[in-house]
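During the no-cost extension, the postdoctoral fellow (Dr. R.K.) reprocessed legacy sequence entries with the updated structure-token encoder. One reprocessed record is reproduced below for audit purposes.
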Amino acid sequence: MKTALALVAGVVIGVVIWLLGVPVPWAVALAVPPTAFCVLVSRLPRATDVLWTADPPPPASISTAHASTLASRLEEAAQDSRRYEDRFRARLSRLGIESGEMPDPKTLAEKLRRVE
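Re-encoded structure tokens follow.
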């Protein structure tokens, strides 16, 4: 049905061009491209359909999970200073971060809890 409607639109375009005083062969030649485009659009309905999808998850969900995990580990490290020295400070020094720049574990854990 849509294809027939596209062909009818092409014939109408050709007739309008002919009524404007253009010779019949030129009217046909000028009506073919819009007709072909209309037929193409009628044959590819999925190309024009709107695809509805759900919203993407909020970007903070993963970082919130990491912050809460880090906060709980820092809380454990605050209770055991050796764990803080062994785990966090060694890893931070490998990353090139001076451990003197970091606050104590309780303060850092409290700041991370506020971020959540």
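Residues 2-44 form one domain. The chain has five helices and no strands. The remaining legacy entries will be reprocessed before the final report is submitted.
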